[in-house]
Specification:
With about 200 residues, the chain is an alpha/beta fold. Helices cover about 45% and strands about 15% of the residues. Bound molecules: uracil.
Length: about 200
């Protein structure tokens, strides 16, 4: 069994006990140079067991293509590995909500272990949630640090960190979308020059 399989097994067992939900584990090559970290799975991701396969995933695929980055070469995961839901007042059905304290406290240590197993050259955070937990400075917000490479230390190991807006946050905002695409193109150029 690989290190990541051991980690995922442990996470699956503990998640069932703590939340009675199935986890959506990270996906992609274990030797990837780049790790993308989202917030948490949505309904489509939960149904398929793969991160970023719904609407935000389509947006991500398009922007990766524009940046000349192959999705198959990137490892993609989430800060929280279960779908955070609440009951909609209108429909009575499950809808997405932001991850809560209990979910973050539970899943962030697994995220750190996962990163330290993959040991990527660059960590790309998508939105504020992963940025907060992967940065050494917990007060950083995406609006003031997107598209700029810095360094971060996770459990004693140094990584390059490139914060991006979350794909779902730019879908309906044309101005932000253009900035987001420019950031991805910049990252693609950095990667092609050699990390
Ligand atoms: N948004 C995320 O942050 N992660 C997913 O896997 C899907 C949507």
């Amino acid at each position: 069994m690989t290190e990541i399989e051991k980690l995922n097994n442990k996470m699956e067992i503990e998640t069932i006990k703590a939340f009675n939900k199935k986890v959506v584990t990270g996906n992609g090559p274990l030797q990837a140079d780049i790790v993308l970290i989202g917030e948490a799975p949505g309904a489509n991701e939960q149904a398929q067991g793969i991160p970023f396969v719904g609407k935000a995933g389509q947006n991500l695929n398009e922007v990766l293509k524009k940046a000349g980055i192959e999705r198959e070469k990137v490892y993609i995961t989430n800060t929280v590995k279960i779908r955070p839901t609440k009951i909609s007042d209108k429909t009575g059905k499950d809808i997405n909500r932001p991850p809560n304290r209990k979910e973050l406290d539970f899943f962030v240590p697994f995220l750190y272990e996962e990163i330290n197993i993959i040991e990527p050259k660059i960590i790309v955070t998508l939105g504020n949630f992963p940025l907060k937990y992967v940065s050494e400075n917990q007060n950083r917000v995406i609006g003031s640090c997107h598209g700029v490479m810095t360094n971060t230390n996770i459990c004693g190991k140094e990584y390059k960190l490139f914060p991006m807006y979350h794909p779902a946050s730019v879908i309906y905002n044309r101005q932000l979308f253009d900035i987001y695409v420019a950031d991805w193109i910049k990252l693609g150029e950095i990667i092609r020059k050699g990390i």
